[in-house]
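Sorry to interrupt, but I need a hand with the structure work. Please put the record directly below this note.
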Amino acid sequence: MFNAAIKLALILCAILMLASCGNGQKEEASALYKNAEALYNAQMYDSTLSVLDTLYKRYPAETDVIRQGIHLMALAQEQISIAGIAHADSVIAANAPIVKEIEKDFIVVKNPDLVENYRIYKTLKNTPLINRTGLEPRVDDNGNIYLVSLLQGRAVNHTMLRVIAPDGSSAETASVPYDDAQNYRFTNDGITNEMVTFHADQCNEFCKFIADNTDKHLKLEFVGKTSYRIPMQATLKNAIARSYTYSVAIQAGLKAESEKLYYNKRLEVAKKQIEQTQPQ
């Protein structure tokens, strides 16, 4: 009889402890939710999502609070998406006039031997690269800038380019090893030719440096087993600068279009979740 009473008392204590623990968990979960709600009201939507993520991980058993959190999460996602769309629209609006203004100064080059067309600045039309040592900036159909270099009559075996300003500052392209494709060599009428193509990710900083320093007397250096320098003419500096600006504007617009599509889809999902989790 005495032992039975002790067992019953122990069971009752355990039940009371579990109930007390359960109430504590619910209170903590509710407090965390209220924190997230305050952040949402303060328009701190990313922080709202972060707090709600903590809520889900710490208190997965508190289904009532979790249900409220899912609804609040959808509301925060909605606001983030709306802001993302607005930002994308502003970027598109800012860059569209730049592209429209610059593109009239570019000529589309169509070559059946190439996979895609490209654009060159109008001042380069009458000086084809094949006839001279130098560079030709090009912009492809996706708005990527790239450079083609040609060095005639000198066995430098160049794999990269360097541009040097009077104060000693400089910028370089990436190195493109000889592969008889992107970097290849040929002889024409007894004259050696070294031609290298530098893709956008290999020449972006190089082009930016020139675009930022068109008013300076820049020198172009072909770098390989040896090196060879020539002064960079104003026509070429301007062509590279305009090509770079054109490319940046196109790329910014395309990126914004992609972001807008992403946020529109995200907004659609958020609205559905808001409707589905609406408190009864």
In short: The longest strand covers residues 145-152. Residues 7-21 have pLDDT under 50 and may be disordered. The two ends are 51 Å apart (CA to CA).
